[in-house]
Amino acid sequence: MSSQHPLPNTQQPSDVYGGDEVSALVLDAGYCHTRAGFAGEDVPKSVLPSFYGSLKTGDGDAATYRDIFGDECLIPRADFEVKNYMSRAESIVEDWDAATKMWEHVLIKRLQPEKPTPPSKNGLNDPVPDGEGDVAMDDVEDQEKPLAESPLLMTEAPWNTGKAREKVIEIAMESWGCPAFWLSRTPVLAAFAAGKASALVIDVGGANTSVTAIHDGMVLKRSIQKSPVGGLWLSGQIRSMWDNNDPKIDIVPSYMVENKTPVDAGAPAQAKLRKFPYEISQSFRTYEEERLVTEFKESVVEVWRGPGRYSNPGNEDIVRSQPGRVFEMPNGSNQMWREQRFRVSEGMWDETAALPAAESITKAQTIPELIKAAVNAVDVDLRPNLLGNIVITGGTSLLNGFGDRLNNELMAMYPGMKIKIHAPGLTTERRFSAWLGGSILASLGTFHQMWISRKEYEENGAGIVEKRCK
Amino acid sequence: MGSQQGKWREDQVLIICPGSQTTMAQLGCSELTPPTHRIPTRMFKDEETNEYTPYHTYKRKKPNATVDGKADDQWEFVEDRDSIEGAVYPLQGGRIANMAAFLAFLDHVHSLLTTTYHNTPIMLMASPQWTRPDCEAIARYVFEKTKTPALCLLNSAVAAQYGLKWPTLTVVDIGFEKVDVTCIHEYLIVGHKDLGYPNPDREISGGEVFTQKLLSLLKDKKFTYDMAEQLKKSSLCEVLPYAPDLPELMELPTDDITPAVGQIINPASSSAEGVKVVEPPKPATAFGGETENGIAEGKENDEGVLDVANIVTSGNTREFLAKKEKEKAEKAKAKKQSKAQEAESAAKPARLPNSKRKVNVFHYEEVVHEDVQVPISNGAPKPEAIAATNGNASISEGATNNQGAKPEGAPEAGGDATESAVNVTNTERRTKRVRRDIEIGLERFLFADRGEINRITDTIYRTIQAIDETYKRTGCWDNIVFVGNGARLRGLKDNIIQTLNARHLISPSTATIFTSELPSNMATPSGTGSQTPTGSFTGQIPTTSSVNPLLQAATTASLGVPGATQAPGSTAGDAFGSGHHSHGQTPMSIKQAPMPTYLAEWTKNGFEEAMFLGSLVAARLAYCIHNLDAGTQEAQRTMSLNRVDYNEHGPKLIHIHSMMGDS
């Protein structure tokens, strides 16, 4: 074939095509979503909810559980619980077994070609169980590891524990056989995705909001601020608002509705509900309710843009005079939302405006205070540069009016300083900015000298990650 | 070669659209016709060489072995083109489950259609489930093992879009064991979800689920898989319209007309020897036609048209024409017979449509093989000759029938094989068709598993609602298309749309419609300047309160009446899409995109195979358009990967130089 189209002499054909292009994988695990894909691409190929399903078969002590992953499998089922492998409070891995399985699903099952089942595992050659249940494991070593050809870059929260970091490299190296590995912190990558080496990263995510100062690609540890004021907290506020509404709004997630009939605003719903011949677990229901709340956030909730707080006199009247928005529930009931849609998000900025909910917050946990604390923890000389390079990321930052309000708050806090906010317009960039930064980083030719190689790992053990990934 | 990109002739391009069951393929894209070849996607592993062969081969004792006496000569290898014994299916649920077999299959398809490599660029449709390393492996194989000059991988959803030409679409691809939902907004893929992926166990979704359900319902009647599959494809099986108020969510017929039906049940015919084909199982494509009593008219029209391309590719024109004539005569005879039978059955109380009958009769045809000893007429057996004629017959049959995904061991080649091979060999496999009439009750409606339909509707809902930019969702809701032969199931598409409408449609509530529209415009400046809310609701203004708008929507808009719906992409509808970027809640309307009407052959074939049409169009664009300006030429260059670029950059370039819909 090459004789047909000879290559020019200047170009040597080589077996290693495109030397700087390895098929590195990037994995970014958050509390709400787990994203995975190939370095060099601009969106993660597979985005899965970090929530997964656990199916129970059998009863009592004989019960066995099977985990299933992916949004499409989270449908009403019998004996079905929805779980999450991350910790809500910290956004770091809580259940390592489930985490490994989930990651294998996104990285290997969804992104790697199907491997023919080796004869030892296809069930045809299993020895008859003799009661001991100890199948020979001799040939496990011989099998090719699933990621033997793909370096892996993973993200972590800036407050991740040393133990968790070692565990992660162990999984990557031992179980998956990665040739190279790197661990990077989400705010660093978010700044990177925005094209900045130094920035103040405000990450308003699902479970947490964090503010971190990045200088020359390094996290300034003392600046890290974290609070639960994120998407789920806002969901709590919305639920509280619905509870105290008049009439009280029952949350009927869409899986319960077979069909609905349109009704006038404020009228009781006329819907036919689906009947299930089994019990629907509370965890599944909660997960489904969250979908509904998310839709409400997308289409109704708005942030009071300022200037000043929403609770300042007169503001509420302005909003009330403007037309509101109608939201229709899955069961067809609908209602107009006017001033409430601003009030519900005000707690993020002003703790006194927060609605009474299970999670009450303190002043220090509001976004302006987080920023203040983070900036104050940084050397005075660095502050102007940080305030001139503010990066907003995280899905909850997509709330309507969020950027305007943040700008107003910052102007009020730091009068006379030059404040510049970088907020990507593309929704995907905002939601996946940490992944995107990882994708850019891992596809850089120069990054290849940085990876922790397999050899290094074998020589130094899991502790290497603490030394290298600072 | 790089500078000559796009210098191929239209008749040189090889188009392959692999499916888990059937692969559509054709050489040449000059005519936008339905595929000339439909090839079962399966391979057989040769135990001795460990290679994959396209047909099942088995050893058979030579009948004259005793005469020779030599041990070696006692056995011969025979290819059985219909057998599925030991078949390997390289594609499962869209994924490449066995790469070696898949590559061997590609090779088989290639050699079946053409013998040249060096001037035959390939357009290969790819499922969204194919992984990056999969694509690289295919590129590597194609360029390193064959002399193919260029390869283009085309995402199946994009292919469907090229076939249907709308810029914004939600493509619902209902396959054999998988369902893919892909949202495309302004030619960009903005969302995708799939069903039927191993997780780690596979929960299949798609056409096969319905067959299995039907089979389980008819277990008591001793139905086999083949019978269930044939019944499902017949006009008897219908997914009834979604009836929101009934407990079964469909309106099952209640009238009892069994006594009349009893007359035509003819158990004797099951044992009748070699009953000639009365009427071949009605092609699924005739669904659009008249459906009364399961007999579709317009069959003759089919016959009048000879597929010239098909005849040419199959090589032996004369033989083909002769066969065609014979077929015609036979069918005319059959027609008469079936007419008579119909008259008999018309004695029933009324000619009720299938959906109103409690029971209906299913004519099951079975192909029975048997090895028969035929007196030796003229010398040595010529198994090769059989193979050759057999092969042609099978291919052309499949093509003329225009039939969708065939069940295993599709009976296509059967009858012809008998005819063409009669006086060639001494031992032969005789094939005959046996017909049985079976009475089917409500099972033929109840097989429409609500759980499966709910899975599909939920996936559509979630995929569209998960599009990041809310304003893009509207267009995707308004232009839903169903492709894949699983979607040929009668009434399934309408039922899905009706279900979506009844469950998810946001009603434009009279009291709130204006207020809900206005403020959203205040928030973001709208590019169109159309601030008047009236323009937004062209199709859906609830006229009077007496008419339930939802019901109206479910009964009119959802039935996909072409013309009544707004053409997607027309600027009139865009006031909705681009004007109200911040208005959130969707769907305000749910519609099927209208199908193009200018391709008569495709209208007849059904747009379930629009992916193939799109592949033809894409092949032209990628390989055959000349004299472009510099920018377009560069864009064209990245549509496919040619050999020069491959040699320079390697298989990874396939991700950039392809039409996989991602970067």
- Spans of chain A of at least 5 consecutive residues whose pLDDT stays below 50 are 1-20, 119-142
**Helix percentage of chain A:** 25-40%
* Number of DSSP-assigned strands of chain A: 19
Fraction of residues in helix of chain B: 25-40%
The share of residues in extended strands of chain B comes to 15-25%
Shape by Cα distribution of chain B: globular
- Profile the largest sheet of chain A: 6 strands, mixed
Unreliable stretches covering 5 or more consecutive residues of chain B = 257-315, 345-349, 379-425, 510-582
| Radius of gyration of chain B, taken over Cα atoms and rounded to an integer in Å | 27 Å
- Oligomeric organization of the protein chains: heterodimer
Largest sheet of chain A, order of strands side by side?
Answer: 3-2-1-7-8-19
Per DSSP E runs of 2 or more residues, the count of β-strands of chain B stands at 19
**What topology, given as strand order, has the largest sheet of chain B?**
3-2-1-11-12-19
Average pLDDT figure of chain B:
72
Measure the end-to-end span of chain B: 25 Å
The biggest beta sheet of chain B reads: 6 strands, mixed
Keywords:
heterodimer, A: 470 residues, alpha+beta, six-stranded mixed sheet, 29% helix, 18% strand, flat, disordered N terminus, B: 663 residues, four-stranded mixed sheet, 23 helices, 37% helix, globular
Give an overview of the whole structure.
- The complex is a heterodimer of chains A (470) and B (663).
- Chain A contains 14 helices and 19 strands.
- Chain A has helices at 96-109, 162-175, 186-193, 231-243, 282-299, 315-321, 340-346, 367-376, 383-387, 402-413, 427-431, 433-443, 454-460, 464-468, and strands spanning 25-29, 33-38, 46-49, 51-57, 64-68, 80-84, 152-156, 180-185, 199-204, 209-215, 218-219, 225-227, 257-261, 270-273, 325-328, 334-337, 390-393, 421-422, 452-453.
- In chain A, the strands form five sheets. Chain A has a six-stranded mixed β-sheet, with helices on both faces.
- In chain A, helix 3 (186-193) crosses helix 12 (433-443) and helix 4 crosses helix 5.
- In chain A, 41% of the residues are buried.
- In chain B, 37% of the residues lie in helices and 16% in strands.
- Chain A: It comes from Hypoxylon rubiginosum.
- Chain A: This is Actin/actin-like protein.
